[in-house]
Amino acid sequence: MTKPQKQIHLAAHFPGVNNTTVWSDPEAGSHIEFASFAHFARTAERAKFDFLFLAEGLRLREQGGKIYDLDVVGRPDTFTVLAALAAVTDHLGLTGTINSTFNEPYEVARQFASLDHLSGGRAAWNVVTSWDAFTGENFRRGGFLPQEERYSRAKEFLATANELFDSWRDDDLVADQAAGVFLRDAGAGAFVHRGQHFDIHGRFNVPRSPQGRPVIFQAGDSDEGREFAAAGADAIFSRYAALDTGQSFYTDVKSRLARYGRRPDDLLILPAASFVLGDTDAEAEELAKEVRRRQVSGATAIKHLEFVWNRDLSGYDPDGPLPDVDPLPGEHTVARGRAQVRMYRDPLATAREWRELAAAHNWSIRDLVIETGNRQTFVGSPATVAETINAYVQADAADGFILVPHITPGGLDGFADRVVPLLQERGVFRTEYTGPTLRDHLGLAHPDDARGERAAS
Amino acid sequence: MPSTPLAPLHLAVALDGTGWHPASWREPVARPRELFTAAYWADLIAEAERGLLDFVTIEDGLGPQSSHFLDPDDRRDQVRGRLDAVLIAARVAPLTRHIGLVPTVVATHTEPFHISKAIATLDYVSTGRAGLRVQITARPNEAAHFGRRTLPRIAAYDDPAAREVVTDLFDEAADHVEVVRRLWDSWEDDAEIRDVATGRFIDRDKLHYIDFEGRYFSVRGPSITPRPPQGQPPVTALAHDTVPYRLVARAADVGYVTPHDTGQARAIIAEIRAEQSAAGRAGEPLHVFADLVVHLDDDPAEAAARRDRLDTLAGEEYTSDARVFTGTPAQLADLLQELQSAGLTGFRLRPAVAGYDLPAITRGLVPELQRRGAFRRAYEADTLRGLLGLPRPANRYAAA
Description:
- The structure holds 2 protein chains of 2 kinds.
- Chain A has 15 helices and 17 strands.
- By secondary structure, chain A is α/β, with parallel strands linked by helices.
- Chain A has 2 domains: 9-279 and 377-451, TIM Barrel (Alpha-Beta Barrel); 297-372, no CATH class.
- In chain A, helix 2 runs parallel beside helix 3 (105-118) and helix 12 crosses helix 13 (413-425).
- In chain B, the strands form 3 sheets. In chain B, strands 1-2-3-4-9-10-11-13 form an 8-stranded parallel β-barrel, surrounded by 8 helices.
- In chain B, helix 3 (112-125) crosses helix 5.
- Classes of the chains: A alpha/beta, B alpha/beta.
- Chains A and B meet through strand 4, helix 2, helix 3, strand 8 and strand 10 of A and helix 2, helix 3, helix 4, strand 6 and strand 8 of B.
- Chain A: Pfam families: Bac_luciferase.
């Protein structure tokens, strides 16, 4: 052994508004009651996870002009739940997805700085961007942002938020009662930002928070998204959890860092990963198959096919063969408010490929949807899963994983109880938190250290 | 004491930094260095809950505090900076059981969609104890923090020349509240069905587009967050003049007003009740609370001495939109009951120094009112609407 073992980072994604989440399971609890979030967060903290992760959606999804009703629908406000979770946990990082398109920097920076204060330095922001007028219908400005400008606005949004976070120095707050000096400098919080998307100035009204700035996550996969992450993110929430695709993503993104004067350790790659545990590998495989069937009902399979076909397929039998009509070309109109439709860039080719696959294996529509998607990342006994996760991290497919259980809120319990101890035994996962902040858990420097402004303590 | 027994009072406390007096942070009890920690707020709100208060409000703003009416200042001798009030309320919610949590929300620069789901979520994390206090801002410097519009400079909120600007801001706030409320109702209570047989998680016929189209914005809906436990968390607003009285009458469950005596209280209430009728809400419960700044001590001389000490530190006498009371908890109880006779249903007290005057309310005023049969002896409801005697409202979109 020449290379020291990497330490694994683990996080818990609250089960989402999509068909990964099996709401029909008898064990499935509420997706909205705070007790579910508290249970989930406490499990993650008991297992010494780095952080909890919350997704966001700002418009209910629609298909065929109607609200999509087959998956979990409804979620709480990200900031509000994270602030409440800060009260029932002591160390767990609190990562929230917040859209940069339908918000303004001053307000979002206040909210993250407040969350960081109220959690003692545990806030993280997954910066996402959207442009669609469909979501815009819920907001003052409507669909104001051209698609090609979404990253330029997101970049400027983040840069502006950083200027606000940095507008107070650590020692601006004096609060010397005897001398009657509350602020060291009357200009604390002063900022001026003039740019293409934001032209704002004034004074930020939240003093510098424990982490200086929240930890920044990025999730986009396009070349622009990767560049955005390389330039300024602390971690990437990626979709490449397999060994080979994970390694090539990891290499690609880490190689972009030098251009920005950053080191490979300055940006963590954390793919989303689902899992199914069993007492034996064989039992886990059986369970995983069963979970996949539950995740894809016949009705869900038809809806999924519509993402590619871009037409109403409700007349088709999910247990029958694939449609012989071709996908409708042009702009996607059937499914709205979901990212999946963008994954199929050439629907005609996908349809052709799927027909061939189905014919070769004698698959029905439902079989095809089950077999071509939704394969869990880690399936096996606790020992197998622990070993695989560790192997992937040591082989630089990832720096750790954001685990996505399929049951709310207890879907993480088995992993916490059975897999984490094995990783701890191998010496690749912490047995105790070593610091109070999320930056401590992730091994990230405080931004003032980088600027050389932080007093040594 | 009045000869005829009055209905029990409702009591709220308005929390703002270390207290409402600008020199309050200089007092030994003030903990100014902890203002930006969860523990500070948790302690204050636990104290309010110990006193069985209906709710706390939490002040907020989209810019630093200032000693000027509409402009920022560059003072270094007063508290500047605050945390987001909704997040403070959420952070404290799991640590409390009964007390209502009413953060301030500025309608002028925020998205009603975000505010609606934030307060709905506060209602979930507090299991039915959320409310909101809606506020407008005409400050040009706060508009510049957003850069989306400029606000014409006004001389004062009640200046006749400013009437159009102020009316617009309050009309926008009324639209904001209307959208927030419609979004809370955009899910019927039983919309989540989890019907395994048909694979449907929700009955989408029980979700509703709100299709609000107003002068300032349009919002389609439905909310992403299911209807909150209270159905409609209470909406509250502070009002000093006809235009805001109209907002209270049209859109609120609790209005805060600032009479300096019983006569003024009577006149304000008459105006609000008339506006309420004009808005077609005559039959609906609408609380009107008076705001009072309080300096309290069992020894009236000590209360006055503390006030004077604070005024000296501040360099000027502290005046406020609300009447400033200085005296003992028993004297305050007398005043509250006298004002109540004008038709007020409760009070929102603004502690001059949170560290002194909040415990004086919970440990002095409350027992005094209890002795007079004028305040609850235990929490008898587990939602804020319940504490305020407001029934859980029907959903406007549900078929009767």
